[in-house]
Specification:
Oligomer: single chain
Strand content: 5-15%
Strand order of the largest sheet: 3-4-7
Mean pLDDT: 89
Largest sheet: 3 strands, antiparallel
Helix content: 40-55%
Distance between the termini: 90 Å
Length: 501
Amino acid sequence: MKQVAPVRVRFAPSPTGYLHVGNVRTALFNWFVARHSQGSFILRIEDTDAERSRPEYEGQLLEDLRWLNLDWDESVDIDGGFGPYRQSDRYRIYQQYAQRLLDEDKAFRCFCSEVELEEVRQQQLARGEMPRYSGKCRGLSPADVAARMKSGLSPTQRLRVRQGTVGFLDLVFGRIDIDTNQISDPVLLRSDGSPTYNFSCVVDDILMRITHVIRGDGHISNTHRQILIYEAFGASVPQFAHLPTVLGPDGQKLSKRHGATSVEEFRVQGYLPEALVNYLALLGWSPPEEGKEILAIKEIVSRFDLSRVSRSPAIFDPAKLNWMNRSYLNQKAGDSLVKLAEPYFVSAGLIHPHPGPEVQAWLARVIDAVKTHVDTLSQLPQEVDIIYGFESDPPELDADAQSALQAPEARAVAQEFLRLVEMREPVTPESYREIVGQVKEATRQKGKALFHPIRAALTGRGSGPELERLVPLYEDGSRLDLPRKVMSCRERLRAVLPVIR
RNA sequence: GUCCCCAUCGUCUAGUCGGCCUAGGACAUCGCGCUUUCAAUGCGGUAACACGGGUUCGAAUCCCGUUGGGGACGCCA
């Protein structure tokens, strides 16, 4: 029996900003692979760029991943025996491994200055060549090196790239081979001694026993350099899988001007994490069976396979995300949405903070009544205006409601309805139905001619949720302690009275 | 500029040994039904193999070229 090493994948973001949907998708696909194969998902913080990395982004990063329900097995907060998991805490390790390469003459010190290198680059570009390192310091003798060190120059350390071809079998793109003459001797250690991305990444992936490197396709060309580093260490090379880029609706790289792009923004706008995960899973991956696109996370995990990942870039489509979020919203019962929706209602001044059970129960019914109209939780308060709004004197009626109350028969319906409501207060679902029956009899109106005027008088609008649902919400809402008053049926009808006279 | 990669409806995609494809699904869009209205929902329609050459009895599927797009070429990740 052949022993198969357990799958170990990693998501290695840089804490240089908010978690972006493109990165989230990379994290997700890694996580899918880990969970599908009962492997480990490792979260590593790549903060070797001191200029741009900010510690506060790290916390945000973890929080965003938690919100998405992506759990990790090892990271800065869970030691799996392969730590530390923050690259800035691993500098000693990089020094040590860099020294080893130097000792074995697989790397060399380079004293070229940045201006000097830039000059050469410009010349090569002008000649229409691919800019690459000249190899100037490759052949420096130990004495030369010692002399320059003594004079106070601080060198970088570069890998000695061998002749020939390097290649790998990408799990999504297939075979990608190139000639090593396309590659400069990559800098491993900067002149200040800090490691570069390509070096720290490889050292960590070796030491953390990463089996599959899954990342954005912008890293394809880095992969060749990195493989050369694995070779220099005599380490086994992991499998690679590169994911196509996520683009904005205009086909350009996704950026702020395309609207929300960070997980934080999607959360604030009231998208459900499961909807965002489901949508992102379908961006570049498709399940083996057709037609089923709303998939629970566990269904995605069980079906996920890198061989079904597309090779071409995908455009992020907010309209489809909206549809998906709506569909998740409608799948959930109102009472399971109350907790999530509460903050939006509180900040809109519709309920007091920390509502009691009565308000919560009422709110759940309110949400059930209007949720088919919204894409996101943040749209709920404006939709709920049909319950609250009616306070101005006289109340504002929309165009549809006004025309519904134009005809004398329509006003008769509304007046009769009011008369009966006055007698039967408070209105229950049962009494509402009875009253409507009596109005029907008294006015000889039915169907649209009957319901439209009632709706207009009661809600001030030409359309909205079913009246049978709205009426009890008005009645019950009017008895609750809310920062903004909900008017009962009678109050509403009295208020419109001047309008329908 | 040089190298690498990609190319099916407006969008995400199915298509994995070339024939079952007069190209399927989902979103969006349009129409119809249901309903007192809107929404939701049900049913149906419009809509694509970038172009040009090959190979083959047969190509969306294989090969070459063109065009278009993306990426790489850093002491960024």
